[in-house]
Automatic annotation (TrEMBL):
Organism the protein comes from: Kribbella turkmenica
Cofactor binding notes: Binds 1 Mg(2+) ion per subunit.
InterPro entries: P-loop_NTPase, Shikimate/glucono_kinase, Shikimate_kinase/TSH1, Shikimate_kinase_CS
One Gene Ontology term of the molecular function aspect: magnesium ion binding
Protein name stated in the entry: Shikimate kinase
Binding site for Mg(2+): S16
Length: 165
């Protein structure tokens, strides 16, 4: 088995939102590795970062991805999933879509909450650094890139469904 489609991209691009919509349209379940990690750890990602540190979160994330790639859902990953070279290699055989987003739009969408611990402090600066460093990695794993600025989640989901045939 293999996921119907796997969404990768920076925080605020809309991975979790678009994956849920896609799943609804395609009549298959939605799976989000961040949700799986939180369920397994019994606490939110922000607490995992504070209590156990980022390396521990990345280890949980890697395990969640290995398990999810065995499934057949619409899959949304966390923004940093592609930092792991083994994950990038594993994604090679999958239907991976990169949801592209500008810095300004991503910053607007994530807001100032504590749910994304890597963005704490100056959200815009953190996001810019992270997007610059990761852009080549998203592009490397993606079979399709979809622009999300000034488009509704419904429009984006429709474009992806069209490409899936
Ligand atoms: N195309 C879009 N236009 C406007 N807002 C969006 C769009 N896609 C997602 N959002 C909003 O942006 C925020 C982040 O979306 P989310 O799906 O959590 O992103 P990710 O999982 O990539 O971090 C949510 O509040 C969501 O409703
Ligand atoms: O970019 C990252 O490294 C992260 C993105 C988050 O997911 P979203 O991209 O869904 O916000 C979440 O996995 C964690 O806070 C780390
Ligand atoms: Mg998400």
């Amino acid at each position: 088995m293999s996921p119907v489609v796997v969404l990768v991209a920076p925080p605020g691009s809309g991975k979790s939102t678009i994956a849920a919509l896609l799943a609804e349209r395609l009549g298959v379940p939605h799976r989000d590795t961040d949700t799986d990690i939180e369920a397994g750890a019994g606490k939110p990602i922000s607490d995992i970062f504070v209590d156990d540190g980022e390396p521990h979160f990345r280890a949980l994330e890697r395990a969640a991805i290995v398990a999810a790639l065995e499934g057949s859902e619409v899959l949304s990953l966390g923004g940093g999933a592609i930092l792991d070279p083994d994950t990038r290699a594993d994604l090679a055989g999958h239907n991976v879509v990169f949801l592209d987003v500008s810095l300004g739009e991503a910053a607007k969408r994530v807001g100032l909450g504590v749910a994304r611990p890597l963005l704490l402090g100056n959200v815009r600066t953190q996001l810019r650094n992270l997007m610059e460093a990761r852009r080549p990695l998203y592009a490397e794993v993606a079979k399709l890139t979809v622009q999300t600025d000034e488009r509704t989640p419904d429009e984006i989901a429709a474009e992806i469904v069209e490409h899936l045939g």
